[in-house]
Fold this protein.
Amino acid sequence: MGSYLSLTASWLRTKARNFMREEKGAGEIIAAVVVLAIVVVLGIAFQDKIVEFFNTLWGNATEGADTGIGTNGTKPT
């Protein structure tokens, strides 16, 4: 049982070492990080406009929600 665990640990170490050495996909990771950084910077730069947009959107969506819809599909007056 001990040799099996030792063999398994050695195999896992080798796989982990090979995984860390591989450079395939590094360009995609860097590109994703750059895009994420740009999105965060734009979000911070336009934070007030984004909050205003969503507040307006939410206000329009909930406007008149407490009065319901009339029988003919229009808002009751």
The chain has a mean pLDDT of 79. The first helix runs from residue 2 to 21. Residues 27-58 form one domain.
